[in-house]
Design brief:
By secondary structure, the protein is an alpha+beta fold. The chain has a 4-stranded antiparallel beta sheet, with helices on one face. A 4-stranded antiparallel beta sheet has the order 4-6-7-8, covered by helices on one side. The protein contains 4 helices and 10 strands; from the N terminus they run H-H-H-H-E-E-E-E-E-E-E-E-E-E. The radius of gyration is 43 Å and the shape is elongated.
């Protein structure tokens, strides 16, 4: 019981570790009483020893409270630290944002370029394998009729054999000719146009793999950055597609339609 009373006294100690005078005097009296009692023949401790023991207990309790406060302070962030982090993030976004946007646009352009290159090669290969004309045309709806010259909305590759009506090798799907591939729409902001060939809105490969129209043509791919960042696919009379290049160091790739000139974006 005496120990529990002493513990209540210790718990009332302020953060500085000094007991009020009344509490200290009460603690000394209790220690003195305890020292006079003793237990089972063991010499009772002196008053000074009891006080030292009390002070030691109080010091340990104060130390544990200070450690607890330090841990709680180190567990979070101050408002100034948080604001510094936000400023650093804003600076990094300001520096890296435009670069990331350009990289994203380049990737979209390259993806569309690869898609169209694969489609041209596929159509030419099918013409040779099937030994009849294969047509390509832009569409406004997936698998729909040929329409306009906006290939970015989607395209259609079909067996241009005139099956079911219409003319063979005319580059126009008649509604019953076999569809071989339906191309998806390009990413947002991309435009795909054809220049040259015999008809701007269609490409036809003959059974020998050559371009049916007998003229070079170019597939021009652009975005909102304009002709300086445009890409192109030149299709020769032989039907072989290749990437357009800049031969005159103008900073713009060239088409062959059939005159060589810088590509133009819509």
């Amino acid at each position: 019981m005496e120990d529990s009373r002493l513990q209540r006294v210790f718990a009332s100690a302020p953060a500085g570790g000094v007991l009020p005078s009344a509490a200290a005097n009460d603690a000394r009296r209790r220690v003195g009483a305890t020292s006079r009692v003793g237990t089972r023949g063991v010499a009772p401790e002196s008053a000074s020893q009891g006080i030292d023991r009390i002070v030691s207990r109080i010091a340990r309790r104060i130390d544990s409270r200070e450690v607890s406060r330090e841990v709680s302070r180190e567990a979070g962030f101050t408002l100034i630290e948080l604001m510094m982090v936000l400023v650093l993030v804003a600076v990094l976004l300001g520096i890296g944002g435009p670069s990331f946007q350009n990289s994203l646009q380049r990737n979209r352009m390259q993806s569309t370029l690869n898609e169209m290159a694969g489609a041209l090669s596929f159509a030419r290969s099918e013409a040779v394998i099937r030994n009849h004309a294969i047509g390509m045309c832009p569409t406004t709806t997936p698998g729909g009729n040929c329409s306009g010259n906006s290939w970015e909305a989607g395209y259609l590759i079909f067996a241009d054999d005139g099956e079911g009506g219409g003319n063979a090798a005319d580059g126009v799907w008649n509604g019953t000719e076999e569809q071989l591939r339906v191309g998806d729409a390009a990413a947002g902001g991309i435009t795909v146009r054809t220049v040259g060939f015999q008809g701007a809105g269609r490409i036809v490969f003959a059974a020998d793999g050559r371009v049916q129209q007998g003229l070079n043509g170019t597939v021009v791919i652009c975005d909102d950055r304009g002709a300086a960042e445009a890409r192109g696919l030149v299709v020769t009379v032989a039907g072989q597609p290749r990437f357009a290049v800049d031969t005159d160091d103008s900073g713009i790739v060239e088409d062959h339609s059939p005159v060589i000139s810088d590509v133009v974006c819509p």
